[in-house]
């Protein structure tokens, strides 16, 4: 996964867009089952969302939701990306991107391709104003059944483990509510999401194992990606120079946005939580494409708890015939 929270003061928005396209191409090393981009317009979605506009078939879709445009398709990012998207990409205050390697849910359905636009199970009563839901991406693999059993989200549209995560997170406004939901995840997860009612704020979370890196360039645009190496490569092939590149530690939640209208984005809120992984989540494929140094540094800093194994019931003895 990858993305951008653009600084309104940046003098060269096209340069940040070049980085987004570079990150999407580099992200193909982590999956080519499907890929997509969500371009946020900066306009908050209303409670009564406008109807979808656009085109969709089994190979690809280009849909305008209230407040964002989501383009995705089967195959690699380079097959989904189109140069005619550049003007809208240059103008987008926030961009969420994803390339998929399917772990749960068929790779042949775009219902399982990210970014996903999901309504909130919690968007009722006092949270009704946030019923527009979220736009979100997830890298990892979690115990979706356990999450559904705990929170009871609405029936899913697709078959991924990502959708119930987003259903649970949508409509959660307070930091304790968000970190409680993140603590409940069991498995690998790195997440990026935007509330459609507040499109100038990006939420990032690294739960267990799945890597997530944040970078800030010299014009104060904020980016995120699964592999820190991608930012070093982007510097070689674009005009952007990064002031900082930091891999987040497990159990980190960040809320990023402008502290005041028109100001560059910054960390508005940061919180920690204890993530939970399964014993088999420590697989070298998690660090696909990493340099040996980056992989060793990240593995040495892991601090998740390990979920206890659920014992398998013993098989029944076959009945004997007298």
UniProtKB/TrEMBL annotation:
Superkingdom of source: Bacteria
InterPro entries: GATase_2_dom, Ntn_hydrolases_N
SUPFAM superfamilies in the record: N-terminal nucleophile aminohydrolases (Ntn hydrolases)
One Pfam family in the UniProt entry: GATase_6
Stretches assigned to the Glutamine amidotransferase type-2 domain: 1-259
Name listed for the protein in its UniProt record: Glutamine amidotransferase type-2 domain-containing protein
């Amino acid at each position: 996964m990858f993305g951008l929270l653009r600084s309104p003061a940046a003098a060269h928005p096209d340069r940040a867009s070049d980085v987004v396209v570079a990150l999407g191409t580099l992200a193909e090393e982590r999956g080519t089952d499907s890929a997509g981009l969500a371009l946020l317009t900066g306009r908050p979605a209303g409670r009564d969302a406008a109807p979808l506009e656009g085109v969709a078939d089994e190979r690809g879709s280009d849909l305008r939701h209230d407040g964002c445009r989501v383009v995705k398709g089967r195959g690699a990012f380079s097959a989904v990306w189109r140069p005619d998207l550049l003007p809208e990409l240059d103008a987008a205050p926030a961009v969420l991107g994803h390339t998929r390697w399917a772990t749960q849910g068929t790779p042949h359905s775009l219902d399982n391709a990210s970014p996903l636009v999901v309504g909130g199970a919690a968007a009722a009563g006092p949270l009704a104003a946030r019923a527009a839901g979220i736009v979100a991406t997830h890298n990892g693999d979690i115990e979706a059944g356990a999450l559904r059993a705990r929170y009871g989200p609405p029936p899913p549209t697709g078959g991924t483990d990502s959708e119930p995560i987003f259903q649970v997170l949508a409509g959660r406004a307070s930091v304790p509510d968000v970190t409680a939901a993140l603590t409940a995840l069991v498995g690998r997860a790195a997440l990026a999401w935007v509330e459609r009612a507040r499109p100038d704020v990006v939420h990032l979370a690294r739960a267990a194992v799945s890597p997530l890196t944040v970078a800030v360039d010299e014009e104060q645009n904020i980016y995120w990606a699964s592999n820190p190496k991608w930012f070093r490569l982007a510097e070689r092939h674009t005009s952007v120079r990064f002031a900082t590149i930091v891999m987040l530690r497990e159990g980190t939640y960040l809320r990023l946005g402008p502290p005041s209208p028109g100001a560059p984005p910054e960390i508005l809120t940061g919180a920690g939580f204890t993530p939970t992984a399964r014993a088999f989540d420590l697989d070298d494929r998690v660090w696909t494409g990493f340099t040996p140094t980056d992989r060793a540094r990240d593995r040495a800093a892991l601090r998740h708890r390990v979920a206890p194994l659920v014992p398998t019931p013993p098989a029944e003895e076959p009945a004997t015939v007298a």
